[in-house]
Design brief:
heterodimer, A: about 110 residues, alpha/beta, Udp-n-acetylmuramoylalanyl-d-glutamate--2,6- Diaminopimelate Ligase, Chain: A, domain 1, five-stranded mixed sheet, B: about 240 residues, TIM Barrel, seven-stranded mixed sheet
């Protein structure tokens, strides 16, 4: 499943979809502490978190995540939104809790 | 008592996210221009631009309190201020050993530039300063006090990296005597849910990363003497 495919999910609102939206999502990763995500987020993952912060973008970029999914209806502020566009990082928002959001991505990856 | 216009939380160019224009002399100059009486430059997990900040502030006739914005292991941001530069620098050494060992990538996080007393670049910090330390929020008050400083939780009204966002609520047996809000309008709502704040001095600082975001002289703090020690003493006094 690609990042682009995720835009078709009505539960996920695309905030910014990058130029590399045809990128394959390889794994689902859940973590809210950036210090852990920094070392552990797998390359190409969809990272589900409630940490809507400028630093989330930097960590996603460092870990080379395919996209960020902000769960629980949290939102990036204006400056962070701009940064996501500048750095071309794909970000989605969802009202779903972390587990449900991750499960949905997991099922899509596994073709369920 | 002397009333001082303050801004006790801002970042210099040593913080990766701080603008490159936020050099110690530019900050002190801007603070003087705005009419602030006291500032604190509080870079992420470091006090290494404080010597230059204090020197620059003295030249501009502004009081500067040495400090840092510490990231705890829970990723709570806490501003730590010290009565003397030596205390801040020895706390800095303690913290430096406890920052996650990740090399900064300037293309992602930004440049971490140190400045000398002569207003010239004095080197680049290679270790990523913005990541978490292994120091817990639990016990942080006592730790900072043991260095002669004072700690207050930063921007408790923000939804990330704040005491309330990351740890849920303010415990009744907390020890800190002041707390920082980014937006004073949120005070009423937050205080209702966290009555501990009734016993705290509420500070409004800029958390500026750009020169233009440094606060205008609006909020004041009453001090007995116009020194860094005087400011720390005032912050230790419950209102």
């Amino acid at each position: 499943m690609t990042v682009q495919d995720l835009t078709a999910q009505k539960e996920f609102v695309p905030v910014h979809v990058g130029k590399t939206a045809d990128r394959e999502i390889t794994k689902t990763f859940c973590c809210d502490l950036l210090s852990i995500a920094m070392g552990k987020a797998p390359e190409g993952c969809a990272w589900i978190t409630v940490m809507a912060n400028m630093n989330t973008l930097a960590v996603a970029s460092l870990a080379d995540a395919a996209c960020i999914v902000l769960a629980e209806d949290v939102h990036l502020d204006e400056t962070a939104l701009q940064k996501a566009a500048e750095q071309d990082i794909s970000v989605f928002e969802t009202k779903l809790p972390i587990f449900e959001a991750a499960l949905l991505v997991y099922r899509k990856i596994n073709g369920e | 008592m002397i009333s001082l216009y303050y801004d006790l939380h801002m970042h210099s160019c040593l913080s990766p996210c701080g603008s490159e224009d936020m050099t110690p002399y530019n900050i002190a100059g801007m603070a003087a221009l705005k009419g602030l009486d006291v500032i604190a430059v509080t870079d992420h997990n470091t006090c290494r631009n404080c010597p230059a900040v204090l020197a620059a502030a003295e030249e501009y006739g502004v009081l500067a309190v040495p400090g840092m914005e510490l990231t705890t292991s829970e990723e709570v941001h806490a501003v730590c201020l010290f009565a003397a530069l030596e205390q801040a620098l020895s706390f800095d050494s303690y913290v430096y050993e406890r920052i996650l060992n990740i090399k900064n990538r300037e293309d992602i996080f930004g440049r971490q530039e140190m400045y000398g007393l002569d207003d010239k670049p004095a080197g680049i910090e290679e270790k990523l300063l913005i990541s978490a330390t292994s120091i817990s929020f639990e016990g942080l008050w006592e730790l900072v006090r043991s260095y002669g400083g004072v700690m207050f939780p930063a921007h408790i009204d923000k939804n990330a990296n704040s005491l309330i966002a990351n740890l849920g609520f303010i415990a009744d047996d907390s020890l800190f005597t002041a707390a920082e809000l980014h937006d004073i309008k949120k005070l009423h709502g937050i205080r209702e849910k966290n009555p501990y704040l009734d016993s705290c001095r509420i500070l409004v600082n800029s958390d500026a990363h750009y020169l233009e975001d440094i606060r205008e002289p609006e909020f004041t703090i009453p001090v007995r003497e116009r020194t860094a020690a005087g400011v720390v003493e005032a912050l230790l006094t419950r209102p």
